[in-house]
């Protein structure tokens, strides 16, 4: 009798123990998931195998010599093998080209012009501004957002008149459409010029990583693409490639209608140096192909290219214990009213420090996979001195 009672008691205790452990585990999982979602984590699933379709991928453009440029498209597939469709052109000619996006068969055409110039760093015209950041190789996401917000039409042509389209860095890495995204930016840049508008491709830390040979965040696709091209991966954006030369002409900070735009931000220490925007861009540009390492010398160059405090890397507006005065010192240095930044993930576009800092890095949808939670793009529209969150469907919400 005693044994039966003891066994029943033990069984009840065991069941209570298992329930307790299960509930505790469930609570911990809930906390971990909630924490991850709060900080921008997501679960990707249902990857589309079309991402492995590389037929017609390109163009990959390299100088052959001082007078000739080679245009390369990848053809074929993994089952039958890959080969190159290559054609040579005179370096100073206008070269017809196309770019293909396999997910939905989109193909857009453009003309490659080897005359590359460094853009201005300051603009004053009171035209409207649309800014978006951290697309991370998402061609479809980028394209659809621009269509919804009337920057381009369904035929992918510029319709933003004399407006400014600001692309605030990290448009490369993490997905399979880096080539498509970069050529799309190039195409829109040329069209905007013809219509009186401007595309501002402001480099982020991931563009710099690619130019410096750091491919830790790059899709493995591009290792294989380089192999098919009989190149090292560093050559894809090297000084002998068109995309490399074009990207290396770009700025890392610009001022448009009194507002600064940069990928990371301005460290307060920068206010202690006598320097202007043109000099900032020149110093950083001279280091585009030089991997950063901490140097004992504490000078302006080290500050600007630092992977912690540098213009393209700084997260201090959201991570450090800054004061309003710290923020405004950086703005006053360049006679700016406010600053728009990407780089540091936000749950939605928002303002900080009494409207002086606007963070626009949000989680965008991926081209070739779905995610939990569902991700939707946002951008920043500045029009008639009003600031708006603009959504993936073209809806505007005043900030």
Automatic annotation (TrEMBL):
From which domain of life does this come? Bacteria
Residues annotated as transmembrane? 21-41
Is Transmembrane helix given among the entry's keywords?
yes
Q: Name a GO molecular-function annotation.
A: hydrolase activity
Answer yes or no on keyword Glycoprotein.
no
Give residue ranges for domain Calcineurin-like phosphoesterase.
128-345
Q: Which UniProt keywords apply?
A: Membrane, Transmembrane, Transmembrane helix
| InterPro entries according to UniProt | Calcineurin-like_PHP (IPR004843), Metallo-depent_PP-like (IPR029052)
| Protein name, as recorded | Calcineurin-like phosphoesterase
Q: Which organism is it from?
A: Flavobacterium saccharophilum
């Amino acid at each position: 009798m005693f044994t039966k009672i003891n066994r029943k008691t033990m069984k009840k205790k065991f069941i209570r123990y298992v329930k307790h452990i299960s509930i505790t585990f469930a609570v911990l999982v809930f906390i971990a998931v909630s924490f991850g979602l709060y900080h921008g984590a997501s679960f990707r699933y249902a990857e589309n195998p079309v991402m492995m379709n590389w037929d017609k991928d390109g163009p990959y453009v390299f100088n052959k010599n001082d007078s000739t440029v080679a245009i390369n498209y990848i053809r074929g597939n993994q089952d039958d093998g890959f080969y190159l469709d290559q054609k040579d052109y005179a370096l100073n000619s206008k070269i017809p080209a196309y770019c293909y996006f396999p997910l939905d068969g989109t193909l857009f055409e453009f003309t490659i012009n080897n005359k590359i110039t460094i853009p201005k760093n300051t603009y004053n015209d009171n035209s409207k501004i649309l800014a978006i950041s951290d697309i991370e190789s998402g061609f479809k996401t980028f394209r659809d957002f621009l269509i919804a917000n009337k920057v381009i039409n369904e035929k992918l042509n510029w319709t933003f008149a004399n407006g400014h389209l600001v692309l605030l860095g990290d448009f490369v890495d993490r997905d399979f459409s880096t080539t498509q995204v970069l050529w799309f930016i190039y195409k829109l840049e040329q069209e905007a010029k013809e219509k009186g508008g401007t595309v501002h491709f402001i480099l982020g830390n991931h563009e710099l990583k690619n130019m410096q040979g750091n491919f830790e965040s790059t899709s493995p696709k591009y290792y294989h693409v380089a192999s098919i091209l009989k190149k090292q991966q560093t050559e894809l954006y090297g000084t002998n490639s068109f995309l490399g030369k074009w990207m290396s002409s770009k700025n890392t900070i610009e001022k448009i209608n009194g507002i600064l735009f940069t990928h990371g931000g301005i460290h307060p220490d920068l206010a202690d140096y006598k320097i202007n925007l043109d000099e900032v861009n020149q110093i950083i540009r001279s280091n585009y192909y030089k991997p950063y390492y901490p140097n004992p010398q504490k000078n302006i160059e080290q500050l600007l290219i630092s992977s912690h405090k540098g213009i393209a890397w700084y997260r201090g507006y959201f991570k450090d214990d800054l004061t309003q005065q710290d923020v405004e010192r950086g703005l006053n240095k360049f006679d700016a009213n406010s600053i728009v930044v990407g780089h540091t993930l936000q749950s939605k576009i928002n303002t900080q420090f009494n409207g002086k800092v606007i963070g626009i890095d949000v989680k965008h949808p991926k081209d070739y996979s779905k995610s939990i939670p569902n991700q939707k793009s946002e951008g920043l529209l500045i029009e008639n001195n009003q600031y708006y969150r603009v959504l993936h469907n073209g809806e505007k919400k005043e900030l």
